[in-house]
Structures are given as structure tokens and as C-alpha cells.
Amino acid sequence: MSQSSVRTLYVRSKSFTLCSSPTDCYSEDVPSPESRPIVISKDFDAQLIEIVQQYRQRTEQFKEKVIDPYASSPERSPPVNDKVAKEHKYMCPKMECTCVDFLLKPITDRVDKRLGTSIDPFTDRKYIAWLSLVTIAFNYNLWFIPVRMAFPYHDPEAVPLWFTLDIIADIIYVIDIIVFQPRLQFCKGGDIIYDKDVIKKKYRGSSRFQNDVLSVLPSDLLYFLFGFKSVFRINRLMKSEAFFEFSDRLEGIMTKAYIWRVIRTIGYLMFILHLNACLYYVASEYQGIGKTKWVYSGQGSAYLRCYYFAVRTLINIGGLPEPHTVFEITFQLANFFVGVFVFSSLIGQMRDVIGAATASQTYFRASMDACVEYMVSNHIPRLVQTRVRTWYNYTWDSQGMLDESELLEQMPLVMRTAIAVDINLATFQKIDLFKGCDNQMLVDMLLRLKSIVYLPGDFVCKKGDIGKEMYIIKAGEVQVIGGPDNKIVFVTLKAGCVFGEISLLQSSANGGNRRTANVAAHGFANLFVLDKKDLNDILIHYPESQKVLAKGKTAPVKDEGEKKKGLAMFGQKPPTPKMLRAFGGFGKGGLLEKLRVCDDLMSGIMVQTHICNLVFHPPIHPSIISSINQSIIPPSLPPSICPFNHPSNLSIYLSIYLSICK
Ligand SMILES: Nc1nc2c(ncn2[C@@H]2O[C@@H]3COP(=O)(O)O[C@H]3[C@H]2O)c(=O)[nH]1
């Protein structure tokens, strides 16, 4: 080894820093350097110098990064925050970004803004609308590729049109692959995945992606070699999944999904006929157009005539020229066989679709028929039979089913709650009787309601009966009636009113659990019914609400405001009569104070008549007052209890007064 090829370098023992002299290796933190000279060959020396240069370069890079923290670097991508994102809007953050990515960035940003980074494929209407477009493009290929293959439709004038349509369909396919499919949320282990990158990765690994890519392969380039032939576009049919997806999604959002199912089944039928028409034309061409009686004659519209042939053969209508050659007979036989199998299955499918669409109607008819049969065989009076039929018809017409609860019971509790809350909670919250009640209690109540339809004139409850249910009017009206033959209407309750709660909320001691009035449906009345047992079960858990309800029922009426509260639970009442106002209304020294006297004086009908005469002018006849008392005071109550001091009975008196004296 020559002296010139030898160079002396010094290595600091711990950190292996390369130094050009021993003193360079001294530093404050290394007080006693143990540097020893290393003798290296010239080649090795060159290598080391190169390494040192590389280190210097690296140091420079780091220095640069200190000045510009977002300088591109393999180790670090710039932090994503708004400011940086804006500054580097069109810069690709990752080293693996391609030019295409870089160019597409502004477009993808815009698309993200419009569509969002992920799409819910089940409910997103925009996606379903897009799918309809893809379905049109797919159907264009599905129907026109065979027809263009079979019939001579590629004449020079038509080629530009076909070409344009092909391009449009292809663009739709490509947009679907780039924009929509890589954004579709999916479910993994019960979690919905929204992350764009994960979704993209999943799509790219799916068989759908493979089919989608195959469907857009530019096989049309073969036109250059073999001429303009639609057979080269046959790979476009690989997009069939989009059609079936569209079909499912549409069924999911349509209120009458069977309409789409019928259209789809008819479409299948027409497509098979269409294919057959194409085959017939090809067969005719093979035989020679117009050569025999069986083939297409070459006259008129080729497609129309061939389609006509297909309809007659495949649906086995017959009446066609007899095939003669072996080829013709074989073709015709194949047609008949296909016709039998395909059409029998399509007809079966159609029957299922129509059967499913009318299933509920069939169920209704069957229930009603069974009931009528039962009534006839048990000699039920005709009048009752008519009422039962009317009930069936009205219930079916008004709610589209006989028993709503049957449908709801199939659902999990959370769904039932959602539906019940959505339909009725707002109405419930407005009912005065429930004001101040716990919302959760109302929801519990909603879940236990049963819907029942009453026919005009039906008694919902009768005075003196034991009250086992309370009612909320869903639709229609009921009337609180009394007097001889129940001819007197004390009050009419409308949708949203509650009744039947008096006997339910009072204790059975002294007959408090008996109905205090007759209530009958005025027209058709659709009522929610709440069982006493259900109500009690609920109230056990809501003692506060129980107090509110009890208060709503028994609160003493003190002034106009409170009177409203007390009476409002019976629904809309007639306005305060002029006469009542003349007597000072319900305020101090007014009607109530006068009536309270009867607590002490009440001993017979004459006293009541006297008070009535005092209050109402012209006076009410004593016989009417007597009949009111008989119909209002629960039989179990001692006669000494004044009927006036109960706000509800008071309202009845006022109603009678209005109806008689106005
Ligand atoms: N007694 C009475 N009941 C009324 C009146 N208005 C509505 N109703 C309702 O008619 C229902 C009959 O049954 P309930 O006694 O259980 O509860 C009664 C009240 O809810 C009224 O003015 N007097």
C-alpha cells in the first residue's frame, strides 16, 4: 500500500463522527477523547467521502424543512388543516400521488362537496337517481347490442348516432366506477363504514369492481381491425349488477313496490321476445330471406315482423307457416320448449307479484267472509250483520288494515316506539289531562293503545257500567248523552279529546269506578283505547304523573282559568252562556259560589229546581232536572250530594240549558 493512497481519518469513539483532524473530534462533552488514527485504502476513502456528501445533503434537506415544514419529504406528509389545505390545494400530499391524481384533485374536491365523501346506498335519493341513469345505459346496451348484431342497422347514416349513444353510455359507466361506487358506505361487523379510503379499498377488492372494469374495457378499439360491429361491446353487459341494485333500491323506497315488480316482469318477457326476434332474423338470413315460407319474407319492418313471429311462437299462439327444413324444424322446436319453460316461470312470477300486492285485500276479504258465514250459520239478526259488515268496510277503508296492533307487534320495541311517537305524541302532549305528565309516561301509554272503530250510534260506554278503559278520540266525534231515551246531547267531544277517565281514575269505594254518563259515537269514531290495568301498570312507575292526573280529575274549580283546565279534559265545551256571565261566571260571588250553597241545602229535586231557576232564565222544567240527575249522579252516590258541584255535571247542565233555552 503506497503512502499517497493512504489517508488518515479520525473517528470519535462513541458517536463515530468522521473528523478530518484529531482536534475536530474534541468537544466539550467529550473531555478526554480517545481518538485513534485509522488507515484506509483510497477506494474506501472515496466511498466514505461519498457517504459524507450524502449526509451533508440530508442535513441540507432537514435545514430546508425547518424553514418550510411542508417541503415534500418521504418521511412526513404535511399536516392537514384548513390553512395548509388551502395553500396546498392543488398539491398532492403523498409521494405516491400520480399526475392523474394531481389533475383530478380539484374535480374530486368538488364532487366530494356535492355528494359527500360517502353515500348511503339504501336511502340516498341522489344515488338512486344516478342508478336509474346507469340502468338506462345498461339497458341501452342490453337491448341494442343484440339487435345491432342481428339486423342490418349499421348503415353509414346510422353509425354516427350509434357511436354517440355508445360514448354516452360508456361515460356513464366510467363515472359510476370513479365517482359513485368508491363512495358507497358498507356495513362491517355491524359498523357502518364512512371512511372514503376504506370504502375505496373495499370496492377495489370486490368482484363488482372487476366486472365494472371489464365492462368498460375499450374493446370497441377492435373496430379499427374488424369494422364497426356491436359484438365488440358485448362486455358492456357485465354491468348487470347495477340494474339489479337499482331494482332493489327502487322497491325499497316505493310505496307501491308491486307496480315496479310488474313492470320489471313485463320487461323480462319483452326482452326474451326481443332476443327471439333477433334470432329469428339471423335464422332467416342463414336460410335466405324470403327463400321459404317459414323465414322472414324481407317485406315491411324487419324488426316488427320478426317480433311478431317471436310473440306467436314463444307464447305458443300458433297460426304460423309450418317449418319444412331440418333447420327450421329444430329452430321451431327449440322455440316451443323455451316458450313453455320461460313463460310458465314468468307467468308464475307475475302471479306472485300480483298476489303479494293484493295479499292484504285478500286477507280482509277472507276475514269478512268467514265472519259473515259465522253470523249466517248462527242466525244473527240481519241488523247486526249489517253493522258488522259496515264495521269491516269502514275499518278497512279508514286504516287499510283490520288490526294495526297486529302489524306493530311484529316490530321490535324501539321501532314501535318510534312509530307511536311520530304519529301520536304531539297530539297527546296537547291533551289538557296529560299536561304536566312525564313524557316517558306518555310514550309508555302510546305503546299500549289499541285502535277501535265505533259505528254511528254505538255506545262506547254506558252510565253505571264499571269503567275498565279510557278513550282518546283519534278521528270522528262522540257525544255524552242522557235524558229519556238518551235524546239529550250534553256535550260533543272531538278528535284529540279524552273521555272515560273519571271512572278509571277514581277508586272503587262508593262506586267511584262506575261510568258517570253514556257516551255514544256520533258518526264513525276511531278511538284509542287504554286499559285500566295498563294505565295502572304505567302509573306505578310515574307517581308524579299519577298526581297530575288525579289533580286534573278532581281539582276544585275556583276561577275562569281553572275552570277551563278542569273542563278542558272533556274536550271542547260550549262557550260560557250569556246567562252564566250574567250571574258572574265562576268568579267570587258568581255562579259557583251560588251553587256551592247546594252542598248544604241539597235535599231534593225542588231545591235543585230552585237553584236552576235561580241560574237559568227561562227556568228548566223540574222533570228535566230530575231526569238529568237520574242520569248523571252515579246510583251509588247518596242523593244529598249536589250534582252541581262536579264540574263535569255542571257542564252538562249548561249544555242542556243551551240546547233548551237558546
Ligand atoms: N259525568 C260527565 N262525564 C262527562 C262529561 N263530559 C265528558 N264526560 C265523559 O264521559 C265519560 C263517561 O265515563 P266516565 O264516567 O268514566 O268518564 C266520563 C267523562 O270522561 C260531563 O259533562 N259529565
What topology emerges from the helices and strands here?
Blueprint: E1 7-11, E2 18-19, E3 36-40, H1 42-67, H2 82-87, H3 99-115, H4 125-150, H5 158-180, E4 186-188, E5 191-193, H6 196-204, H7 207-216, H8 223-226, H9 240-253, H10 257-287, H11 302-314, H12 326-357, H13 359-377, H14 382-399, H15 404-409, H16 413-430, H17 439-448, E6 450-454, E7 459-461, E8 469-475, E9 478-482, E10 488-493, E11 498-499, H18 502-505, E12 518-521, E13 525-531, H19 532-541, H20 543-554, H21 560-568, H22 578-582, H23 591-601, H24 605-615, H25 622-632, H26 647-661
Antiparallel strand pairs: 1-2, 1-3, 4-5, 6-13, 7-12, 8-11, 8-13, 9-10, 9-12
Helix pairs in contact: 4-5, 4-9, 4-10, 5-7, 9-10, 10-11, 10-12, 13-14, 16-17, 17-19, 23-24
The structure holds cyclic guanosine monophosphate.
List keywords for this structure.
four-stranded antiparallel beta sheet, single chain, Ion_trans_dom, 13 strands, 662 residues, RmlC-like_jellyroll, 56% helix
- Widest beta sheet: strand line-up: 6-13-8-11
What is the C-alpha radius of gyration, as a whole number of Å?
44 Å
Low-confidence runs: 1-36, 69-95, 554-614, 630-648
Give the overall shape.
Answer: flat
Distance between the termini: 137 Å
Helix content: 55-70%
The major beta sheet can be summarized as: 4 strands, antiparallel
Report the β-strand fraction as a percent range.
Answer: 5-15%
By secondary-structure content and strand pairing, the structural class works out as alpha+beta
What molecules are bound to this protein? cyclic guanosine monophosphate
In total, the number of strands is: 13
Q: What oligomeric state is this?
A: single chain
What is the tally of helical segments? Answer: 26
The average pLDDT is: 76
